[in-house]
Design a protein that fits this description.
It is a multi-pass membrane protein. With 446 residues, this protein is of the alpha+beta class. It is built from 16 helices and 8 strands. Helices cover 52% and strands 9% of the residues. The protein is elongated, with a radius of gyration of 38 Å. The relative contact order is 0.05.
Length: 446
């Protein structure tokens, strides 16, 4: 009894240690470890099944031990010689887990069920071999064969099995038995978008028009960047009313400060999309701290929710008084792209992020950022920021220069980029597939 319990206990401990180690491994290493285990099981089953066929009555002479003998005996009793499908399945799983981490195996494994029914029936019908008084098709094949012959006769059985083989073959090759002919008109429709996309690739030679279309003159070479800019909205120009409102607020600001014996003048006004900054130059002898302490009084005079006093503005002999705009201006990407700093600056991955408080475009180099975290409340502009970054890169680079891998499990923002040629693959929406794609990128970078 002890000779039996001790090996079983050691085996359970070994399996537990192996599972604990596998739990701590990275997903790629887990899959490779699973592939190795499947390969080892495949070898064990092949050895056990061959040994069983050679010595079907002597369990202690089986090279796979008692496990190999009983597993082979039970599977042969059930499906006959089709039991060799077990090491085939294990070999397939080992290959997929070790070499093909992306491949889905669920659908492929389902094919073995109808194949097993037909193969067992054929073995039971045509092969007159037996092992331990069990037919070549096993118990399952004998039952299927008996049922078909009793209800459909021998000729009907042949027809059913033959038709079943044809169905299984077409299931494996994934082709229709009666393929539909596609009308000729569909070919013309498919060629049109291909010809329309060629100008966007900035090819050196002018594309020739397709003979299947109705175009009678050569297609012009389209300037991709010009066409790209035509899609974007124009930035709204500052109206005279806005300028007069700023002048009025500047006058109110000076008068309010004068009431507190703070003399000076507004020398400049810089208006951004969200706030406007008044540069107030105090008269000689006026302390900057006095202006900083009047923040609430100035907010009351300007009817603002709050103001911010920058005392002083770095590099200037003036105090900045930042006041929220009564109406926020729309920030358009086109203005940032057309800015000379973005056009002329040789950045590796230049992107437009928006505008600063003075209304000047904010431009940065994505290659200088090891990571970027975009966070904010609902409706604060996270998606707009991501789209702005993507469009900035699309403007400067073709699909030959830059490629994207986009992941959007919520399927809200990024799937609209599926038609662009810059994608390595369609936008990933499944978390499992996202992990696999990111692991591939890590391997490329390493």
């Amino acid at each position: 009894m002890a000779n039996t319990i001790v090996p079983i206990a050691l085996l359970i401990v070994a399996i537990g240690v192996l599972l604990f180690i596998a739990k701590e491994l990275d997903p790629p290493k887990k899959r490779k470890l699973s592939g190795i285990i499947f390969f080892l099981l495949c070898i064990l089953f092949v050895i056990s099944q061959i040994s069983y066929l050679i010595n079907p009555l002597e369990r202690f002479r089986n090279l796979g031990g008692l496990f190999g003998f009983y597993s082979s005996a039970w599977t042969f009793w059930l499906v006959g010689f089709y039991f060799f499908i077990i090491p085939c399945i294990l070999a397939y799983l080992g290959f997929v887990f070790f070499f093909k981490p992306e491949k889905r195996i669920t659908t492929v494994l389902l094919y073995f069920v109808p194949i097993g029914v037909i193969v067992d029936a054929i073995f039971a019908l045509f092969l007159k071999l037996s092992v331990n008084n069990i037919g070549a098709g096993g118990t399952f094949g004998s039952i299927v064969n008996t049922f078909l012959i009793n209800y459909f006769g021998r000729l009907g059985t042949y027809l059913i099995l033959g038709f079943g083989i044809i169905i299984v073959v077409f299931m494996i090759v994934k082709k229709s038995i009666f393929p539909k002919r596609k009308p000729k008109d569909e070919i013309v429709i498919k060629e049109k978008p291909k010809k329309a996309k060629k100008p966007k690739k900035e090819t050196k030679e002018e594309d020739k028009p397709s003979t299947s279309t109705k175009i009678t003159k050569p297609l012009p070479k389209i300037d991709f960047k010009t066409a790209f800019l035509n899609i974007l909205e124009e930035s709204p120009e500052d109206s005279e009313l806005d300028k007069k409102a700023l002048e009025t607020e500047a006058t109110v600001l000076v008068n309010r400060l004068a009431e507190f014996d703070v003399e000076g003048k507004v020398v400049n006004v810089e208006s951004g999309p969200v706030i406007s900054r008044f540069e107030f130059e105090p008269a000689p002898g006026v302390k900057v701290s006095r202006i900083a302490n009047l923040g609430k009084d100035l907010a009351l005079a300007l009817k603002a929710t709050r103001i911010r006093v920058v005392a002083p503005i770095p590099g200037k002999s003036a105090v900045g008084i930042e006041v929220p705009n009564r109406e926020r201006s729309l920030v358009c990407l086109k203005k940032g792209i057309l800015d000379h700093e973005f056009q002329d600056n040789p950045l590796a991955l230049g992107i437009v992020l928006g505008e600063d408080i003075t209304g000047q475009p904010v431009i940065d180099d994505l290659s200088s950022m090891p990571h970027m975290l975009i966070a904010g409340t609902t409706g604060s502009g996270k998606s707009v920021c991501i789209n702005t970054i993507i469009l900035s890169l699309l403007y400067h680079y073709t699909h030959k220069d830059i490629r994207f891998l986009m992941i959007d499990p919520k399927r809200l923002e990024l799937p609209m980029y599926n038609p662009i040629p810059h994608l390595l693959r369609r936008v990933v929406t499944q978390p499992k597939h996202a992990v696999i794609q990111l692991e591939k990128l890590v391997k490329i970078m390493e």
